[in-house]
Amino acid sequence: MMKEHDHTGCLRPFARLAASFSSFQQTYCIEQKEHFRELVQKQRPGAMVLSCCDSRTDPALVFACAPGDIFVSRAIAAFVPPYGSSAGACFRAATAYAVDALKVQDLIIMGHTRCGGISGLVAGHGDGPLADWLEVGRPVLEEARRRKPRADRAVLQRECEYLAPVFSVHNLLHYPWVEKALQEHRLTVHAWLFDLEEGELHNYNFERHEYEFLQEMPRDLVP
Ligand SMILES: [Zn+2]
C-alpha cells in the first residue's frame, strides 16, 4: 500500500486526486445516473480541443465541460506537426478518430500566454525529448524573429504565442481526413488563444489575419 501522506503529514497529490473522485461519482454516477449510463454506451462530443499540457489550461475546466462534451488531445505548446512528420503520431490518430469516427463539428487548437513550452522554444537551450518536440515549433520562432527582429525575449515569446495556434491550424489543414471533412463542409477548424493573465479568450480571424475577442473580461466584474 502506498503512503497517502508525505513526511509533513499532508496528503500526497495522488491521494488528493483519488479522494476527489468521490465528487465525480456523486455528480455523474449517482445524481446524473441515466445520462451517464447513455454516455457509457457511446460518446458523442461535438468538438475536439487540442491544448497545451499546461496544468492551468485544461480545456474541460476552462470550458466548464461535463463528461462527453469534448474530445481532447494535449501536446506541449499545442503544436501540431506537419503531416508526415515523425513527431505527433498520437495526435494524428486522435484527430483521425475525432473527425472520421466521432464526426466532431469543430476542431479547436488552443494556445495560451505564459506558455512554458513556448518559453523553452524561445530560450532555445536543452536537449532530450522536450527539445526534440519543441523543434516542431521552430518555424514559429523564425517567423516571430522575422516580424520582430529587435524584440527582446518577452516580446518574442508573446509573438510566438500568438503565432503558434495559427501555425498549428495551417499544418492541420493538410491532414487528409481534416482536408476531406472541410471540403464536405462538416468541420470547422479554429485557432484560439487563452490569455491566462487577462482571463480572456481570443479567436484568430483568418480573413482579417488578427485575433478578436471570443470572451472579453467583463470590466464591471474586475475589482
Ligand atoms: Zn503551454
Structural overview:
Pfam families: Pro_CA. By secondary structure, the chain is of the alpha/beta class. It is built from nine helices and six strands. It has a six-stranded mixed β-sheet with strand order 2-1-3-4-5-6, covered by helices on one side. Helix 1 packs across helix 2 and helix 7 crosses helix 8. The chain is globular and about 55 Å long. The model has no long low-confidence stretch (mean pLDDT 94). Bound molecules: zinc ion. Zinc ion (ZN) binds next to helix 5.
Short description:
InterPro entries: Carbonic_anhydrase (IPR001765), Carbonic_anhydrase_sf (IPR036874). One of its GO terms (molecular function) is carbonate dehydratase activity. With about 220 residues, the chain is an alpha/beta fold.
Architecture blueprint of SSEs:
Elements: H1 13-31, H2 33-41, E1 47-51, H3 59-62, E2 70-74, H4 89-101, E3 106-112, H5 116-123, H6 129-134, H7 138-147, H8 153-172, H9 176-183, E4 188-195, E5 200-205, E6 210-215
Helix pairs in contact: 1-2, 5-8, 7-8
The protein binds zinc ion.
